[in-house]
Amino acid sequence: MIGMTIGMRGQPASAGLLILEDGTTARGEGFGARGTAHGELVFNTAMTGYQEVLTDPSYRGQIVTMTTAHVGNYGVNDADAESDRVQVAGFVVRERSRSASNHRAQRTLDAELAAAGVVGLTGVDTRRLTRHLRSAGTMRAAVSTEVLDADALLGQVLTAPTMAGSDLATTAGTPVPYEAGWPAADARHRIVAVDFGLKRTILRLLGDQGCAVTVLPATTSAQEVLAREPDGVFVSNGPGDPAALGAGVATLRELLAARVPVFGICLGHQLLGRALGADTYQLAFGHRGVNQPVSNLDRQAVEITSHNHGFAVDADTLPADGPLGRVRATHVNLNDGVNEGLRCLDVPAFSVQYHPEAAPGTSDARYLFPLFTELLGAVDAGAR
Fold first, then answer.
1. pTM, two decimal places
2. Of the candidates 88, 123, 157, which is a domain's last residue?
3. What distance lies between CA 225 and its chain's CA centroid?
4. What are the tens digits of pLDDT across the range 38-64?
């Protein structure tokens, strides 16, 4: 058996085991649902917002560990969910609160995970686990309350698929079209949102900008989008490897050729990059948290931003003057130099890698939503 043991506490009444593909183990107490969950183990550095993390579709296929020590103290409620269900494959914390002390709480964290069928593990030294992931990189893992033999569970992990090459996004969003419900009938713009796993806060902020949003499945063709005659297209966040979404890239390329205004976030940014001819690659341990410093090259300012991504656009492969014209990088991560945004100069499109809706997180980047409506207005004025 290779690897190390993190936070081993013996065998509690409801024992649980986490094991990584390099043999690293962590034992603790199970909570939430009982069973075994597989996924890519990643860490999130946010001090709060665990419900938004749990319900973010971009975490599909991942076991999430929080670096903050105490999780669950304010419970969960129906209003703060970013989708209609818990999305994570598993959840690992240092200490989970057994009660919820907040006037908005409707359920405990334990009850929420149990109802969703998601396995949780508490009593783990999550900061040491995070340091290990920062050194070794994210990797396949499993968390279980039923398979407590490390060698047996490791055997399962080693047969699981990797995140690289995984298409998780085409089934993460809606299977049928629907109207987002914001704003009132006097909307100024008609928007199509292509749903690869979008967050509800994004729809609300588009609505706040006077956009009536129709949400379409990830598999929607460019012809189907154009048939709705939208003023613009939003391309959402979502899970998995953008290189596995060839159909989505082709759709986006056709929309750009038709000069439809496009705004992409997270996975949408990566898909825009690939549609323009750039490459994408997997980061060693990704960016996940609410405290990522990003330099806005246009404004010459620093934004503190919310992130959740394991893949990125290779800025060195952005074409200076490709089939869809010129494109340039607009944002860069100050921690590691990763590309965080791009703008097309000859077609109406831009995108950012981080989450300007920031749920949870700061509001530094909320300006991007009115920037999108300004682009819609400029294109509309030019057409007239």
1. 0.94
2. 157
3. 24
4. 999 999 999 999 999 999 999 999 999
